[in-house]
Every structure is written in C-alpha cells, then in structure tokens.
Amino acid sequence: MKHKILKLVTQAIINLFMILFSITCIFPLIWMLYSSLKTQQEFSLDIISLPKVLHFDNFIAAIKIGKMHMFFGNSLFNSVVSVILIIIIGFVVAYFLSRYNFKLRNFIYIVFLFGMLVPVHSLLIPLFIQFKVLWLLDKRFTLILPYVAFGLPMAIFLFESFIKSTPVEIEEAAYLDGGSTSTIIFKIVFPVCRPVISTILILSFLNAWNEFPFALILLRKQSLKTLPIGLSNFNGAYTVNYPQLMAAMVIAVLPVIIIYLLSSKRIIEGMTAGSVKG
Amino acid sequence: MRKALKCLSLLIAITMVFSLAACGSTNGGETGPTDSSAVQGTGGAKAPVTLSFTHMFPTEDTEGNSIAFHKALEKFKSENPNVTINEEPLSHDNYETKVRTLAAGNELPDIFIVKGSMTSMFIQNKLINPVDDVINSDPEWKEAFLQGAFDDFVVDGKSYGIPFQMLNTHLIYYNKQLLNDAGITAFPTTWTEFLEAINKLKAKGLTPISLGNKGNWVAESCILSTLGDRYTGTDWFRSIKEKKGAKFTDPEFISALRALQELAKMGAFNTDLNSIDNMQQKTAYYNGKAAMFMEGNWAVSNVINDAPKEIQDNTELALLPAVDGGKGDAMANSAGAAWAYNVNSSLTGDKLATAYKVLKAVTDADYATISVESNAFPASNPKTIDKSKLAPLSIKYLDLSAKIKPVPIYDAQLSADLIQVMNTGLQQLLIDSITPEDLAKKIQAEYEK
Description:
The structure holds two protein chains of two kinds. Chain A is mainly alpha-helical.
C-alpha cells in the first residue's frame, strides 16, 4: 500500500514537471495568438497581459495591407515544387550512386556533399550576378533553383546511405520477374525508402518555407515574394508594430500547426527513421 | 523502352533550352521600349515614363516617415499620370543588404536610398552622381532644407544625396509629474544636479532612466553620441573622422565613457538594460515606473500613439546637461539625415528629369508639411504648420529642435566595423565588465586597423 502511494506521488511530480516544461514550449505560440488581438497601445503598456477587447483589426490589416495571403501562396508554391524536385532528383541520383560502380562515382558523390559545406551568405552576390546574366531574376521559378540545389546534398546523402542498407536481393527478384530498371527504381525501391522520404520532405520543406536571403536578393516584384520577406515588412526603422506583426505571423503559422497536428505521428516516425536526426 | 527514355530526355533538354532563350528575349523586349521612350520623351512633354524605385517604407510600416512618404508619392502619381513607378518596398533592416547586393551586381534601380557611410563605395564604382546642380537650379527647393541636412553625404565638397529626414538621435523624454514629486522642479542644467536628481528619483523607488540596449545601438546612438560631444567637442570628432590625430584614448573621450559607466553604477538605469529593446524601454515609462528614457525624435510619434493620456500630457523634452570641464556646447545634439535619395548614374534624358521630379515631391517644403503633420521629422522646413493639427508633444519637439545645434551621430559617420566594436563594448561597459580605459583602447585598436 505504502509502495503504491509513493509511486503515485513520484509519478505526479514527474508529470507536473513535464507539464510545466511543455508549457514553456507552447507559451510563445499562445502569447502570439492572444497578442495579435491587442492594440498597439495595450501591447506597449503590458507585454504579457490578456487583451481587454478582442481586436480583430490587426488581421484585417495583415491581409489588406500586408497581403499575407499572397506571400503565403508564393511560399507554398516554392516549397511544394522544390520539395517534389528534391525528392525525385535526389532519389534517382542516390540510387545510381549507391547501386552502380562507375568512373568518377566517388567524385560525383563528394561534389554533391560539398554543397552542404557552402555557407549561403557567401553565395549571395555571385549567385545574384549569375542569375542576372542568365536572365533568371524575378521569375516564378527563380527561387526554386537555389532551393533545389541546396536541398539536394542532404537528400542525396540520406537516400544514398538508406538505399545502401536495403538488401539488393529485392531488386534482383524483381529483375528476374522481368521488371525494367525504371519499374524497379520507382515501384520497388522508392516505396522501401518511405521513412527517409518523410525525413527529407520535412527538412527540405522547412528550409524552403523559412528561407530568407535568396528571397530577398533574387526577387524584385512584390507579387513573387515569400512569407519571411512579407513578415519583415512590419518592422519599421526604429519601431515595430508588434500586434500587427503577430497577426501576420498567426496567419503564416496556423496552417503549418494544423498540418503538424493532423500528421504529427507520421512526422515523428519520419524524423526518427533516418540515420541523421533533424 | 530505352529508346523512349532517350527521346524523352532529349525532348526535355530541348524545351529547357528554348524556355531559357524565351526568357532572355522577353526581358530584352522589356528594356527596349523604355530606352526608346526616353529618347522620344525629349520631344513631347507627356510621354510615358517608367521608373523603378526601391525604398524602405513598406505600407505596413506605421512610422510617420512611411506615412508621409506614401501620401506625398500618391499625390505625385495623381498629378503625373504619365509616370509609372514600380516600387519595391523593403523593411529598413533588409534594405541595406539588398541595396549593397544590387550595387555589387550593378543592378541598382532608377531611384534608391543611400546611407551616409555607403556613399564613398558608390562613388568609387560610379553608381551615383552629385546632386548639387539639380538642387542649385531650384532655389525654392534648396532653401527649404535644414542646416546640416546634407552633411552625411558630402564627399570632396559635393553632395551625393537628397535627404528626407532629420534625426535627432538624443532626446530625454521625462515625466514632469514624477520629477516634481521627487522634489525636482526644473530639469537639471548641470551634471551634478543631474546626478542629484537621479538619486532623488531612486529614493522614490522609481527607475530614473529606462534603457533598452538589446539592439546595442541605443546606448551609442541615443546617449554616447551626445554625451561624447559634451566632453570632447565637435572638433575632436572631425579630427577622428578625417584621421588628423585625435584618438579614442584621448582623456576627453574616456571621461565620456566614465560618465556613462558612473550612471550605470549608481543605478540610473534598470538592471535588465541589455535584455530589453528600445520598444520595451518605453513600457516602464508608459506605466509611470520610470521617470525618463533617452531616444531619438522618432519616439515622439510612439509616445503620442501609445502612451496613456496622462503620461503623454506630463511628458516634456530635454537634452543632457553640460558637463564640468567639457568642451562641447550644451545645446549640441547628435543629429543628421543618415539616409538620402539618389538616382542611378546611368539615367539620362526624360527619365533622369522625371526621377528628380519624383525626389522633389518626397523631399520639398510641401512634403515637409505632410511629414510634420504625420509626427515625423523632415529634412526641410515646412512652409506653414497648422499647429492645431499637431499633438502637444510634437509642438514641444519643434520648439526644442529649433534651438538645437547639430553634431555628428557616431553610427551615421564612422565605419560599420568600428561601430560594432563600440556598441558591443558599451553593453559590457554598462554592466561593469570592462573599464572605460580598456574600452577606449579596444576602439582605438579597431580605428587604427
């Protein structure tokens, strides 16, 4: 009996501790949500307090003036297209790198991996000049090119090590049954890679969604810009209209949170499946 | 199957080549007509002109400068329907990154904004031309500008920018009521009185000066630029800037650093000064828990918009008092335009003339009227001010600013690397983890690099 009580108490303490810990993680989000309903004056008087009156004007301003819906669409387009390209190209390249032995195989692999070592900021000006000379600035697909290029090294690295660890016998069996190379690649190996695909999907989606320097440098048309740039527009030179910025951030973050809540189980599976943890 | 795959890859390759070529030609087409319109424009007065304009006033930005800019530009657009302006608004912080990259790629827009410290780099690369001729040819425009407005952009006697704002980076916003309650009837006029006042306010349980130096520029731009001048005088700074012998290790500059550290040591500031920013430093003031804060004139519109009515009514403005043995003027105040417009040096003919017309619309005396009415701080004198449209604090500011003698702002005139050393050093100085002498040596070492 005594033993049982002791166990209950320790469990309660541990749970309490964990709950407090979780609150520190979720509080910034909650704070952002309710702060977006305050007026600028309320916010500057007290940062933490709850809004006295629900003030939805910030959201109207964020959409009407801040055009958050437009930035959101652009971000979504860029992220989705680059993720699809990264996965298809990365997978095919990695398959051939891991299953075939040819001249310069190691060289090609290393060249791809070197991409992970290049700091993005050192490439801003060279890439800008290159894009200018090639007339690639200010197009719908402008940002997709660097996003794919920067996403590929990690994708190839993860795919390559994963494919190497899967038994080659499955492919041999498929070959004996008369499957062509492309059937084997896309119908046999691709589904086997599912855990690592979700890892790559999440990581490269997040990278493209949050990417800032290229979006700032390579685009001039307002109608092509992405969310991170749109959000930064709320910062003045010396002052920030925080409640309006919060409202814009809620618009930017809410869909991501909803998607996460709907598919959190799968995302965590994917995160833990790869050999490299996000 | 294999053949089909080969055909497919060939097809993809071909389409890619063609799409690239197509992009090239459409872009070429775009530049074609604008070039020819510039040539045609010299004949007819109302030929269509298209200008690209990269600025730092997004419509989301609610500062007075941004509001005034948009009002003035809208007015220009409605008066000149033949002019199309392709704007690219960027926030202040991103603007600098972008304009530097555009300059490196020689892709600057037709009209843009330069920072005082950027001008020499732009001139070396022949990206901008002096604006003196244009300004001088229009006396009305020229005369409206405030004294010292062009200072940040003068290189070899020529001005390379048309200023639109006049920053006074140092102002003391104080709560008259709180000072009265602590037994201070008038704002101190000597340094000793100022220190006494701080002690009295502390005894009342108030934070004497609320400071948010997380962004690390507040202590330097809003306090030290003026405090330094009180001790060193402006000639010392000129000598520093032109590398004519003055040193950061000179006793006058060290005294300024020591005075700042003494303020911190005696508890004049809040203890979390390095972890809150300049927006948050005003929170304590708005709640009546701090008696003063020091910030530039941009905070005038913050106080008007955000402070509770009674705090706002009690707010008065002052400058740091004179210091004992200081070489500076007590009415000197760190001020400058910091940013200014200029046009791309490749513009010619009608486009050039129109570009200057646009700039006149966003800098002249009419603009100044709009600007003052938006609680901003233009670089020109407005023709008429309808004082009834202004908030009381704005009027107090206008009265004070008329008496101010502008002296340089450190971060608008010194190199970015040096300012970085100074700013981070000041953060340490304020929490007493570096002595004024050591900090002065560090700044001097960076200066001599």
